[in-house]
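ARCHIVE CARD
CATEGORY: sequence design from structure
SOURCE FIELD: tokenized fold
FIELD CONTENT:
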């Protein structure tokens, strides 16, 4: 009888331990979901997967009509002006033949106040920030208050499939890392320029050139691309698979180029692409130091 009593006691302890483990696991998963899909601006991944309302459809139709006016037109526009003359052709060995732009060549910076919106029918851009449960969403909410920011979980997330469902909603998509601080006026100028030319293959960021493929990929800390490039990617007959050891940013840059070539065998990379090489003095990675300010960001800062 004593042995049975001991076994029964052990069984009760085992069941209690099991229930405790299950409870902790459920709480963790719930917190992880809440942290990774925190929403502001237009919301998180939930917004990306939801249906389209009548108002949104009306907005999209208007958006298509506005941008189609200049479709298949080589003219580059900014604030209603023709700025095609600021496009330069690379002459160095690494970037020879590539078309590129420097935002500093545009004299007037965009105003961030024009981008402040919480009305999902007005935003024509989206800034995607991957975060993990270890990242502080409070920081993101306050740092980029007023911008249309979407947060996604930085692990096994379906951002590729979900973002394609937004077509033709956004004129510009920005991918921004958690540990980045960027000059908001500079960010606004970039969004205005790319938003005025959604039908062009414009790719913004800090370039990484791959000599073997002769393709430029933008550094993953921050990059942006127009709707035309998103259409290339989402209409790809076979999206290139990721390889062990290849970083997300390099894979994405190559995937964009390969997808455009799959759709049109006569696609000419140098002629079709316009790169905006980022001004790294406007972007701070992992740390920022200024007057009475010393800021460190990221898990490994």
């Amino acid at each position: 009888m004593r042995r049975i009593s001991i076994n029964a006691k052990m069984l009760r302890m085992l069941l209690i331990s099991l229930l405790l483990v299950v409870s902790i696991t459920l709480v963790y998963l719930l917190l992880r979901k809440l942290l990774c899909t925190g929403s502001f601006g237009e919301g998180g991944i939930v917004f990306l997967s939801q249906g389209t309302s009548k108002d949104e459809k009306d907005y999209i139709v208007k958006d298509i009509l506005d941008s189609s006016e200049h479709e298949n037109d080589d003219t580059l526009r900014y604030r209603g002006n023709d700025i095609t003359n600021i496009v330069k052709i690379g002459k160095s060995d690494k970037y020879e033949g590539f078309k590129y732009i420097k935002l500093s060549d545009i004299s007037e910076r965009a105003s961030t106040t024009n981008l402040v919106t919480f009305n999902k029918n007005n935003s024509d851009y989206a800034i995607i920030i991957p975060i993990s449960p270890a990242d502080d969403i409070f920081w993101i909410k306050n740092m980029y208050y007023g911008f249309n920011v979407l947060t996604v979980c930085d692990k096994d997330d379906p951002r590729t499939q979900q973002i394609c469902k937004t077509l033709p909603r956004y004129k510009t998509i920005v991918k921004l890392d958690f540990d980045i601080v960027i000059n908001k006026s500079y960010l606004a100028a970039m969004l205005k320029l790319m938003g005025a030319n959604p039908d062009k293959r414009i790719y913004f960021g800090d370039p990484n050139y791959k000599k073997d493929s002769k393709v430029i990929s933008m550094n993953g800390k921050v990059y942006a691309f127009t709707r035309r490039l998103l259409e290339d990617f989402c209409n790809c007959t076979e999206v290139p698979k990721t390889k062990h050891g290849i970083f997300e940013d390099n894979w994405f840059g190559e995937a964009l180029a390969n997808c455009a070539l799959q759709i049109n065998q006569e696609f000419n990379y140098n002629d079709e692409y316009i790169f905006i090489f980022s001004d790294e003095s406007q972007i701070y990675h992992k740390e920022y130091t200024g007057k009475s300010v010393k800021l460190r960001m990221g898990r490994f800062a």
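CARD ANNOTATION: The two ends are 60 Å apart (CA to CA). Residues 38-296 form one domain.
SHELF: design records, drawer C
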